[in-house]
Amino acid sequence: MSSKQRIEVRVNGTRYVREVEARLTLADFLRHELSLGGTHVGCEHGICGACTVLINDQSARSCLTLAVQADDCDITTVENLRNPETGALHPIQQSFVDAHGLQCGFCTPGFMMTTLELLRENPDPSDEQIKEALGGNLCRCTGYQSIMDSVRLAAQRMKSSTLG
Amino acid sequence: MKPAPFDYHAPATLDEAVALLTRLEDEGCDMKIIAGGQSLMPMLALRVARPEALVDLRRLDTLNYIRDDAGTLAIGAMTSKQAAADSALVKRAQPLFHAATELVGHRQIRNRGSVGGSFAHADPASEYPAVALVLDTEFEAVGPDGARTIPADEFFVTYMTTSLETTEVLTAVRFAPFAPQRRWAIQEFARRNGDLALAGVALTLNVDGGLCRDVRIAAFGVEATAVRLTAAEQLLEGQPAQAAQFEQAGKAGAAQLDDPMSCIHASSAYRRHLIGVLTTRALGEAAARTH
Amino acid sequence: MAIEIHTLPEHMPNDALRYVGKPVNRVEDPALVSGTVQFIDNLSLPGMLHCAILRSPHPHARIVSVDVSAALAAEGVVAVISGEDVKRWCVPGFTAPEGWGNYCMAVDKVRFVGEPVAAVAATSRYLAEDALELLHIEYETLTPVCNPEQAMAPDAPVVFEERGTNVMLHRDYTWGEVDRVFAEADHIISRRFRWNRVGANPTETFGCICQWDLADNSLTCHGAYQTPRFMAIGRAASLQLPANRVRIVTHPQGGGFGGKGGPRGTDIAALLSRKSNGRPVKYIEDRMEYLLAGGGQSWDRYYDAALAVKADGTVTGFRVHLVDDQGAGAEGYGTISAAKPLAAFTGNYRIEAASYDLTLVATNRAPTYPYRGYGPPPHNLVLESLMDCTARELGMDPAELRRQNFIRPEQFPYTVPSGNEYDSGNYEAVLDRVLEIADYPALRARQAAARAEGRLVGIGVVGTVEPGVFDWNAYATVGVPGVGVPEGVKVGLDVFGNVSVAVGFSLQGQGQFTVAAQVVADYLGVDMAQVKISTASSDVALPHFGQGGSRLGVAVTGAILGACEKLNAMFCKVVAHVMQAPEESIVLRNGRLYRVDAPEHGMSLAEIAGLMLSRSDLLPPGVEPCPEATYVWTSPNRNAPDDQGRCRSYLTAANATHVALVEIDRDTGRTHILDYCIVDDCGTRLNPANVEGQLQGGVAQGVGAALYEEYVYNDECQPLVSTFVDYLMPTIHEVPMTRKDHIVTPSPVSPLGAKGCGEGAMHTTPATILCAINDALAPLGKEMLETPASPHRLWKLLHEDQATSA
User: Fold this and answer.
1) Which of B146, B174, C91, C525 has the fewest CB atoms below 10 angstroms from its CB?
2) Do residues C624 and C566 make contact, with C-beta atoms less than 8 angstroms apart?
3) Do residues A106 and A66 share a domain?
4) What's the predicted TM-score (pTM) here?
């Protein structure tokens, strides 16, 4: 009864053609078919936000998306943040490190991908806008204060790097 | 929490989609349309929904638009909620619908979730059906017998049920022009920011010489589907747009509810009470709104 | 040779500490932000199968029959196990109190919704879940025991037949002349409290991959294990293997907060591997499984408590009567959670006498498990709420009432009536500072103005002691045999002067790898970048415990210092021998060993390590060619409990005072946190950023427990919480961005003077918020004595008069 579907996706710039079961979630596809384990799964029913990736540059919960729905899409995951040549951390990653915006780190990829979308659209967000953007991501460790600090720091750094 | 297996179809055109739905229906297949999937996916993961086939509308680009049709705002059913939230046209033409859209879930959900999907899903806690009831909203659907238009008050039937046939595809939502002087508000109560509302109220009214006119109030999150609070509307008609009247209207609206839902977060009595509070507050907000 | 563990950072052989005491970046973070850390579900082994577990839909039922034939024939299925297999191969898991345990899977009857009944190993998780639908279980339902009142009623159905009662444990402790102080009291302030179930809910659920080697009859378990050695012993016992044939490889964990470890899941995956001819079997608990039965439910408590108070506000006695609904068994060591309050029973106060009557009861709710704080959060809520009730009754300011009763700085070390010894503290300084940063008079003025407008605004000022660094003796009194808590490390150098540290635990979020790297780098005078911390599997690791009991930061510091002391002594010997100088003339300072009388004559660590590893001819007699040292640290000076459970259990006593300003919306019952301030004293702050993270994270969980989170059961004992739509953890919108400061009173007895600090905010926040809520309600003469103080509950309380008249 389960049908296999051929899909073509570009993940972090690499093209993949795969036959997948229709019911396979995008999260499971990324993690277990493509071995991109940085996208974590915390609830599988769309509440925690740990599995957030970008689909065509828009944040999405990969547990609430079927892999087949991502056919012909561009997917960006946390693995794409670091500079592939130098290995240097992205300013968002470095800011989370510097401002202690993580503890166990399990939810962090989701927070960073959400932050990436926020700062692309709004390089200078207010605290309220940061909260609004991150309201769909649960963190059980930090109590969010250092995450706020991290996002503010990232915004500051990304702005000055574009200016520079 | 993995979905049960299903067949999957992603028709390339609306005609193909309708033909496919008709064929599957004839075969006795239990099928389900998936648009953004933000409500359906959790139900699949929990296996509380286990259709034999999914018909995915993602390739129907023709259903992805926001346009002004001679003053009527038309939104294609596959338009994402975030696109609606980001649209200056939507914000200008239909401020209540726009505000309701911003209340839906979180950004990640709005990016994927479609405008049409929420209307068709008809979740009683959703803001959209209530908004549709207080605006002049029409739904366009295409089925094997062609296209038809369904007014909002005939669209929502009961809990997660609309008057769409299983072989029909919701193609667009149309909002009649929103008069610039018309006031509006939407208020809801949820345990946390972004949660489904335990109770909510969307309303529109005119304040004409200090008096309320053509008041329309709909409650959501309390009964099987969004419900017009006609008792509150009638009570306010021609009455001063003032706190005391809003308070009374809230009480009347709450009293009118048949049997509000109950869940671990809110009893029936509490929901009824919340509708009264939210109605009063939303009326105050709308009356105070300057254009 | 006695090893002296330094109790102050400045004792380390380094002129200028570069890392200890500074908010240095964490060594674990670059990999975590890159998404390359190997959480357990990122690991796949060749030939690996996937486990799915069928769980009971009934709270209490006899299993009449189990038919696995259809599931076994399903696509991709390799093995199925059920109670029959478990009965053949296992014994029930260890429990506290003993003898209240279940097998990893129900064998004859089910005792809670979510209890495993059968399990499938298949080639994918999807197929395994499909196969669960083909398992046919016939049940004969039994009357469930839904709450302690039902459980203790005569003729109640019995959850564990062989016990003949549902009362797991009853203990009655008396410390001091309780009857006298209550008889002589001018006021007796008593209340009943209800703390509903909450729990850990780390973002990563439990997961493991188990592989049974059929030839060697040994078991390897990779997984998210909080206490690896303890887990290995437990698995050996329940799976009937020699302990040295169980190897636990613990992986970084996406949070823990108590119940991380999954003994049942591990046993089930292990048995499936055994039945699959030794193929590795992965089990990843999903969120629904976690919420129903995953070791994430804690503290289901009914309190009846009283303070004895003199007319001047001196509190002289504290009586607590606790009935604790443990759920269906004691596999989560619930006794310990009920006993932990002994370590700081009377909080910050000089209360001379106290008593504790505790009854642990079995019901058909899910078994309870540890959660951050491990018992004191509800206890502190009771004590601190009673302090506020006392202040109201006496017309005193709640902050001043507390100040009046504080243990004074000169009284440390201070032995509380329940037996533990607090090492140090300065509670008044903490209180003064938090009142200052909160601007307490201004808050009171703001409250008065709001009250004049009819608004419900309240202030909570709550201080608690956080017992840190638990030890074996804390729980012996309630029937838990010695839970040893050693922490061992190995520190070694290579020929380039790099430092390797092997520990027995893995990452969980608190940053202990960073603390270990800071301490070793500052002791040996190397750059932190030269230090590599890694996790040893349980078969080769030194004795260790891992995370738990607000101790690991302190314990690993002690272990590192001990190992470094041994290295230091050994290196001095080597250098003295090479330089033909007396051993006493050689010192380690700033990363170099040299002659005190001729500092230009010395050797670098790399030179010493290189010499030791490559030139056996230059080694002094008796020194091995091994520039490595091990040390297993445990708290000094612990003693056995007396008949009333009194002993020196927790080594350190950190403390904190929180101030919250809240407003309750009269119409909706919703509580808004308007301001939140914290001043804490956990002694030396080894990494202040880590400490701050622990505090703020504890606040978030405390806010959850006080206002949002609850595992709800209906009258038939059916759980009504199975998703995150039902279990409401605070988001960024609900957690206050707190204002913080600190006082530093170094512990005189702990490594570098640091005190355990992982649980203090969770100990304090729920009480602070509830006290603030009750302060807000005071003008109405109403009190909220149940958690969480949800909008619905508060609304009912605010409107109960109308509700009854309506």
Assistant:
1) B146
2) no
3) no
4) 0.97
